[in-house]
Specification:
This protein is mainly beta. Helix content is 10%, strand content 53%. The strands form two sheets. A four-stranded antiparallel sheet has the order 4-3-6-7, with no helix packed on it. The protein has a three-stranded antiparallel sheet with strand order 1-2-5, with no helix packed on it.
Length: 114
């Protein structure tokens, strides 16, 4: 598996650059573990998109109540993305980040410890 790269500079003709872009783009939607976890007061959520997609990321508590909307149905380009959840105004406990990417749905468990 290739190591993730946050920035790549490619120089060449148009055909070469297009081939290089395709090589570095993710091949599928992936949700990476949030970091740090457990966290206090904030954590970073990472996800990758193989192509442009509409994205929603919400955070819920153990009772299923929505406590935050981090991304609200925004179109994001192909590539690697990050978003931060700030739990400084929240109680310690378990939270769930729900990623809705296109027609796919992913859930990630997070632990806030104060």
């Amino acid at each position: 598996e290739k190591e993730e790269t946050s920035m790549v500079l490619v120089v060449g003709d148009t055909r070469y650059i297009k081939n290089q872009q395709e090589e570095f783009l993710p091949k599928e939607v992936k949700i990476k573990p949030n970091y740090p976890n457990p966290f206090n007061p904030s954590t970073t959520l990472r996800f990758s998109l193989p192509e442009q997609a509409e994205v929603r990321v919400q955070v819920f508590n153990l009772l299923g109540q929505k406590v935050s909307t981090l991304i609200n149905n925004e179109v994001r380009q192909a590539g690697i993305h990050t978003v931060t959840f700030d739990g400084s105004q929240r109680a310690s406990g378990m939270y769930f980040a729900v990623f809705e990417i296109g027609k796919q749905r992913f859930v990630q468990k997070m632990t806030l410890i104060k």
